[in-house]
Design goal:
Layout: H1 3-10, H2 13-27, H3 29-36, H4 42-64, H5 75-98, H6 101-108, H7 111-122, H8 130-147, E1 148-150, E2 153-156, H9 160-183, H10 189-211, H11 221-248, H12 251-255, H13 260-272, H14 279-296
Antiparallel strand pairs: 1-2
Helix pairs in contact: 2-11, 2-13, 3-6, 3-11, 4-5, 4-10, 4-11, 5-9, 5-10, 6-9, 6-13, 7-9, 8-14, 13-14
């Protein structure tokens, strides 16, 4: 029996079920963003989302007894992560605004590919194995397929600009995750995630006030529910439960269920947004999911 098989067997079935559920919920984030964008433009969506999330994560940190105020030597790392976080989230929401939910679900889910690539050069002992390299190649082929109509057609798909902005966001997210992994070796995770959100709020508010207009006349329960889902479920509950599981079981096993996210995102976009899913998108999604699964192998 391989070490990977033993690690999977060491995780009880309820924990596996919860992990699959969490990654499924994360797959619904692009759909939630699309709903919130009906009223709140990209930067205002980010502002209200993380305003809600700060409350949720703050309560979680308080229950755990984690000191919220950073020490002086922690500020440089938090400022850098906060800057990356702000640019990455802004790019993600702008990209979602310019493309479909299904396209966005697949493209933003490529962030582990970039994380694995960055980790190869920046994290000692986290080199690319044969499986990881194969996973990167397969998933990037899937990404290319999503960005084009097919192997013989180089015309870009609908929302080409939004697609490439989302790919940039996924790259920034992968880099931020690796930077955060290094910072987490000496800082509690609750303080890291809390302050990257706190530092981003003034910038989202300023950008929204200068460049965007909230469509209050279109307010309805769906956009509000989308914000609550992003803030409380994805950034609040999802973050807390994910770290709870990774602290108690093999992180590689818990993270390996990330391949569920693009599948859930595409299916939820078809169901809730009524989007037609083309053959090339199904194929691209499948390749990305297979690639993510291979990258997660140990």
């Amino acid at each position: 029996m391989t070490s990977s098989s033993r690690a999977i067997l060491a995780v009880p079935l309820p924990a596996i079920a919860i992990s699959v559920l969490i990654h499924t919920l994360w797959g619904g984030n692009p759909v939630a963003v699309k709903y919130s964008l009906l009223v709140f433009p990209p930067l205002w969506t980010a502002f209200f989302r993380f305003l809600i999330a700060i409350v949720c994560v703050g309560i979680w940190a308080k229950l755990r007894g984690v000191p919220i105020v950073p020490s002086r030597h922690e500020w440089p790392a938090l400022l850098l992560i906060g800057a990356l976080f702000t640019v990455q989230i802004a790019a993600m929401n702008i990209g979602f605004d310019l493309t479909t939910g299904s396209m966005g679900s697949v493209l933003i889910a490529t962030n582990p590919l970039f994380a694995a690539l960055f980790a190869h050069f920046l994290i000692a002992g986290d080199r690319l194995s044969v499986f990881k390299a194969a996973g990167l190649l397969i998933a990037f082929l899937g990404t290319a397929l999503v960005l084009t109509r097919g192997a013989g057609d180089l015309a870009l798909t609908h929302g080409a600009l939004g697609n490439f902005i989302l790919l940039l966001s996924a790259c920034l997210l992968g880099g931020r995750l690796i930077l955060s992994a290094r910072v987490l070796q000496r800082m509690d995770e609750a303080r890291v995630i809390l302050w990257q959100m706190i530092l981003s709020l003034p910038l989202f508010a300023l950008g929204g006030a200068l460049f965007e207009t909230i469509q209050w006349q279109a307010i309805a329960w769906q956009p509000v529910a989308g914000l609550v889902y992003q803030g409380a479920i994805v950034a609040g509950v999802g973050f807390s439960v994910s770290f709870y599981l990774m602290k108690r079981y093999a992180p590689s096993v818990i993270v390996s269920f990330n391949f569920v996210s693009p599948i859930a995102g595409v299916l939820l976009s078809a169901w809730l947004l009524g989007e037609a899913i083309s053959a090339h998108l199904w194929a691209g999604m499948s390749l990305v999911a297979i690639g993510l699964f291979l990258i997660a192998r140990r």
